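Forwarding these from the shared drive since the link keeps breaking.
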Amino acid sequence: EFSVLGRIGIGLGIGGGVINSMLYNVDGGHRDVIFDRFQDYEERVLPSIINESQFDTIELVTQRTLISQCASKFLTERVAQFGLLLDDISITHLSFRSEFTSAVELKQVAQQDVEKQRFLVEKTEQSRQANVISVESDARTADLIGKALDEAGDD
């Protein structure tokens, strides 16, 4: 019986504690500010932590590892001011305005075109050098054949 009564008592105690934490008593003629820990973090603390950036868009794209290290250091120090402990961060997804994304894509296409043209120029240069070597080789061969014929004489 004591086991069942104990469980019921514990359940009522926890339930009463939860209900008591939801009730607030404000005396007449006074105003009260109710601190909702989770709501406050979501609406006030987090935006004040993450709305500050010292990096531009290009740096975010090209130097992700460095940005992640700097952001981790900054955020660890910043959240400590609010009594929070930050264990780790990870930059998993960045999204930008469509104009920026289009500009980046156009730049990448242009860079690929430049690389393609550079490859074609190098290929053409190698082909030209191969032709020069071939002509020089043919000339050397003809010269050696001519010398051999001269030495052999009319035989």
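-- next protein --
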Amino acid sequence: MMTWSSMNFQNANSPIMEQLIFFHDYTMIILILITMSILYLMLTLMMNKFTNKNLLNKQNIEIIWTMTPSIMLIFIAMPSIHLLYLTDEINKPLITIKTIGHQWYWSYEYSDFKNIEFDSYMNKSINKNSFRLLDVDNNTIIPMNTQIRLIVTSNDVIHSWTIPSLGKKIDAIPGRLNQISMLIKRPGLMFGQCSEICGANHSFMPIVMESIPMIYFLKWINSF
């Protein structure tokens, strides 16, 4: 989760988020290269006192400054499109979880296991071990290193189920089922919030996903 004065991304908890961070760094290198080149050319033009009265146009330079940005855009677009398709890919999920957005809480259904259902409200009791506006009374328990499909919808208005450390954001729309796939590499808690302005208490419907080893997940399922 994010902390005060943190200038970087959260630690990636999924392969997709790792690739998104790599793509961000890769794109920033290209942008810095473009910015430095333009600054250098601007300074050169301002400080250069030589002129060429016979140079009116030049086809070569026109081709260069037209083709160079196009090539750079291709270098940015290709990995971007690749990541876009990877994000939407569903890879034979082992578990399906249905998420329903309400004003202002989330409901989860584990239809693969005894039809387990529960609501997840923001935890209003604050103590030194809790995170204000981020803790919930019922965490979403999922096994690590397992392909999971999340089916998202809404019961009233448009919500948006978002966990930044997983690189996942999907809209919850009434009357529509959206799905995403996720794979979490390590155990731990992942925090998120609704990122769609859905009403007066929009900022009070957090998401907490808890990743645990498969053996403990099965014990948790059997406890119902």
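The mean pLDDT is 88. The two ends are 29 Å apart (CA to CA).

- D.
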